[in-house]
Write a structure and sequence with these properties.
The protein is an alpha/beta fold. It has helices at about 15-30, 35-40, 45-55, 85-95, 140-160, and strands spanning about 5, 35, 60-65, 100-105, 130-135, 190-195, 200-205.
């Protein structure tokens, strides 16, 4: 059973999505990564497989590019607003199962959607610490993504006290927020949120702090 589920919208940032898939396969092994186009055999019940994999994965990476949030069908209706939209179904299934879900922003300018822009059943996605794969520093971003995903899987294997775990140091693959000063007397691990002009949320930590991914 693959441990990592890649959730994505097909028309959105396809070339970067494919680079992410290949990088994670190289780092973890192809058998550990579920990607619908490669992982569902011909003739299989794709709906049943998608739901089962989303419910049973240890980690879901939600790949979000510039067109992810506002993608629309031929009728002009936003795809996320359809109850049967597969991206929505995958994320909702993983969240209900209590799996770790990590938004992965593709490109330098893609923002994490606001909760108000998401269907209620997946609005929690807007509060989750994200990773970013920047287009301008793609090799380094892919390497840091692989490090972060491998560390999260290792944490799943070895963690016995999730209340005290601070999570891995994700390095440059995690985007730092802007305009928020560190607290005067910070705890060993601090997570802060800043609202960025134009919508979306950015999370930052001071130089000597660790971003909590859980």
């Amino acid at each position: 059973m693959p441990r990592v589920f890649l959730s994505f919208r097909k028309p959105d940032s396809r070339w970067m999505r494919d680079r992410v898939y290949r990088a994670l396969c190289d780092r973890l092994g192809a058998d550990e990564i579920f990607k619908s186009g490669q992982s569902i055999p011909p003739g299989a019940d794709f709906a049943e497989i998608l739901r089962r994999q989303a419910a049973e994965c240890e980690l879901m990476c939600v790949l979000i590019g510039p067109g992810w949030l506002d993608a629309r069908g031929e009728d002009g209706v936003r795809l996320l607003d359809r109850a049967h939209d597969w991206v929505r179904v995958e994320i909702a299934t993983a969240l209900r199962a209590g799996n770790r879900v990590v938004p992965v922003l593709l490109g330098d300018a893609t923002m994490l959607p606001e909760a108000s822009a998401l269907p209620a059943e997946i609005a929690k996605l807007a509060r989750l610490q994200f990773l970013r794969v920047p287009e301008t520093h793609l090799p380094g971003g892919l390497a840091h993504l692989g490090d972060a995903v491998a560390a999260l899987l290792s944490d799943t294997d070895t963690d016995t006290d999730t209340d005290t775990d601070t999570g891995p140091d994700t390095g440059p693959a995690v985007e730092a927020g802007r305009g928020t000063a560190p607290a005067a007397d910070p705890e060993p691990s601090v997570t802060m949120t800043a609202h960025v002009s134009g919508g979306g949320s950015a999370y930052q930590a001071a130089r000597d702090q660790t971003i909590r991914l859980a």
